[in-house]
Fold this sequence. Notes:
Low-confidence stretches: 99-109
Largest sheet: none
Number of helices: 6
Shape: elongated
Amino acid sequence: MNYITVLLVSIALGIDAFSVAVSIGLGGANKKQMLTVTAIVTLFHVIMPLLGLYLGTYLGKIAGPTASSIGALVLIAIGLSILWKSLKELGYISQPKNKGLATQDKRSILSINSPLSLILLGASVSLDALTVGFGLGALKVDLFLTVITMGIIAGLMTLIGLVFGKKLNRTLGEKAEILGGLILVVIGVKLLFV
């Protein structure tokens, strides 16, 4: 496999990350969140092909469809969480009166501020890189260069998606986060049924 092929495979692997990043950017992510999400996606796009390589083809055939389904469900859950929060904030869903109880912690499990959510997000958008890793052992590639390229390309595509989404947020205003949640749900449903 030549380096042009590695670049093309890396771009193909980064498309899911780009789409999810646009959705996150629509929610109005700040610079720290953008850098954190980019770093997580980059790291997972390096780790997952290596993990795939070491797990081997047999395990990939067994776990591949299940892993993809789990990743899709994670994206759907994050998207629905964003939708619910946005609709409540905009007043489309009424909130029960607080009867002296302490307000809930704003760090939900399904938030880009939550470490668990970031790990689930990174894993779900890099599952296809895990599958690619299963085949890397059979190909004559420079493994280090290949996985670093996959990580860098996915990271760049994530950052571009975040910036693009944030610019759309400014244009769409309050409804941008709803659109971001819908995009995540659609991506998750597509991954679940394709």
